[in-house]
């Protein structure tokens, strides 16, 4: 499986419209349309999973294609960078955390 990044999507795009865009180039395993948490509206990009060869064909065929008045940016998805977890410092109830008073 290969994950493909699809950027500069029309904000009205749906998972089904993205699936139909990629399906002529091979079997689409999954489509993940990224949406805003608060509004539920598309954020303008998605990830599509396809077989290795099919994904390469789709990238070549669709990159720069005009869909909905916007030129798509289609390429292989890069792995998500590792984030450092939250850094908590244990304090006593008497410690304000601001350092010494003088």
Characterise this structure.
With 102 residues, this protein is α+β, with helices and mostly antiparallel strands. It has one domain (2-76): Alpha-Beta Plaits, CATH 3.30.70.330. The chain has helices at 15-22, 52-62, and strands at 2-7, 28-35, 42-50, 66-67, 70-71, 73-76. A hairpin with a 6-residue loop joins strand 2 and strand 3. It is elongated.
In short:
The protein has 102 residues and is α+β, with helices and mostly antiparallel strands. Helices cover 19% and strands 30% of the residues.
| Rg from Cα | 21 Å
> Span between N and C termini?
60 Å
Mean pLDDT across the residues is: 88
CATH topology grouping: Alpha-Beta Plaits
CATH top level label: Alpha Beta
CATH superfamily: RRM (RNA recognition motif) domain
Q: Based on Cα principal axes, name the global outline.
A: elongated
What would you call the structural class?
alpha+beta
Count of DSSP strands: 6
Count of separate structural domains:
1
Q: What portion of residues belong to β-strands?
A: 25-35%
| H/E element order | EHEEHEEE
Largest sheet: 4 strands, antiparallel
Instruction: Return the CATH architecture.
Output: 2-Layer Sandwich
Question: What is the topology?
Answer:
Layout lengths: L1 E6 L7 H8 L5 E8 L6 E9 L1 H11 L3 E2 L2 E2 L1 E4 L26
Antiparallel strand pairs: 1-3, 1-6, 2-3, 4-5
Supply the key terms.
single chain; 102 residues; alpha+beta; Alpha-Beta Plaits; four-stranded antiparallel β-sheet; two-stranded antiparallel ribbon; 2 helices; 19% helix; elongated
């Amino acid at each position: 499986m290969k994950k493909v990044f699809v950027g500069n999507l029309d904000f009205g795009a749906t998972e089904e419209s993205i699936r139909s865009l990629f399906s002529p180039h091979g079997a689409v395993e999954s489509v993940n349309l990224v949406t805003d948490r608060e509004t539920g509206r598309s954020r303008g990009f998605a990830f599509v999973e396809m077989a290795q060869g099919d994904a390469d064909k789709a990238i070549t065929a669709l990159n720069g294609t005009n869909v909905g008045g916007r030129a798509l940016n289609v390429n292989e998805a890069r792995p998500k960078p590792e984030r450092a977890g939250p850094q908590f410092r244990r304090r006593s109830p008497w410690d304000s955390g601001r350092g010494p008073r003088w």
